[in-house]
Design brief:
This protein folds into two domains: 112 residues; 111 residues, Immunoglobulin-like. 12% of the residues lie in helices and 35% in strands. The strands form four sheets. The chain has a five-stranded antiparallel β-sheet, with no helix packed on it. The chain is mainly β and 271 residues long. The protein has two helices and 16 strands. The radius of gyration is 29 Å and the shape is elongated. The longest helix is centred in the first third of the chain and has 21 residues.
Length: 271
């Protein structure tokens, strides 16, 4: 037994020594090098903005276990595209003390400077995109400003994502409208041409022009997000079947959640 134990000892020793001999120093990834260099910059915090975020108590919001707090900064007058800087907090309580600055910029080389709009969002599902139940607040700030007071006071309602508009038929096809036609309104994510639509609405009692609303309440699969660029399609169907057939009248238009006064013109007759 002693000989066996001694053998195992030497085997383990030389095995480990062999492994140590093979250890090599691996260079740091370039992305990590840049991040460390940025953090080491003595001027990195010069333009930091700090303050307090409060939640309007009148809203009586119950926090979801998956909730996250997002803070965005955009240059004044810029309302779309990637934010200048963003910061996410998964652990927080209100009032919440925050700071955001050059260290949190999204694109390398951009400067956290000048006048900006600062937006904070209590996101109930932890997803950065705005959805019903989230609460937002916005305030204008200047780079380097301290003591900013931002209140989350705008509750995103379920109707905020609705697309509203009017369906009508072109003059050339009005005499082709079937007497008992059924109107279907579909939404598909832009670029998606096959499979079930994202959302659909069926209108049996058709009167044109028809004012429609399509939104999260009309999604085909429960839990599917009603978001992103879409193509709306409307069809007056002769036989009441959602599938296209001879004599149906169709039309298409691009739209985004929240769009209003969308005009969807049916101008194509299915042969």
């Amino acid at each position: 037994m002693k000989r066996l134990a001694l053998f195992c000892y030497f085997l383990g020793f030389f095995g480990l020594s062999g492994c140590d001999g093979e250890l090599k120093e691996h260079p740091l990834p370039e992305s990590l090098k840049k991040e460390l260099a940025k953090q080491a910059d003595p001027t990195i915090h010069n333009n930091d903005v700090s303050g307090t975020i409060a939640l309007d108590p009148a809203l009586k919001v119950n926090l979801s276990p998956t909730a996250g707090l997002f803070i965005f900064a955009r240059p004044e007058g810029v309302d779309a595209g990637p934010p200048l800087a963003v910061k996410r907090h998964s652990v927080f309580e209100f009032p919440f003390e925050f700071e955001i600055g050059q260290l949190h910029t999204m694109i390398e080389g951009t400067k956290f400077e000048g006048t900006m709009n600062l937006t904070a969002r209590l996101d109930q599902d932890g997803n950065r995109k705005s959805s019903p139940g989230d609460v937002e607040g916005k305030v204008q700030i200047t780079a380097g400003q301290q003591g900013v007071q931002l209140v989350l006071e705008n509750l995103i309602e379920a109707t905020a994502s609705n697309i509203e508009g009017t369906v009508n038929v072109s003059e050339a096809l009005k005499n082709k409208i079937p007497a008992n036609g059924t109107l279907f309104i579909f939404a598909r994510s832009e670029g998606v041409k096959r499979g079930p639509p994202l959302a659909v609405k069926r209108v049996a009692d058709l009167k044109l022009p028809y004012e429609f609303t399509l939104g999260p309440q009309d999604v085909m699969m429960p839990g599917t997000a009603f978001e992103g660029a879409m193509v709306l399609a409307a069809r007056i169907d002769v036989d009441g079947d959602a599938r296209a057939g001879p004599g149906d009248i169709e039309g298409f238009v691009s739209a985004q959640p929240g769009d209003r006064k969308v005009e969807l013109l049916l101008n194509h007759l299915t042969p």
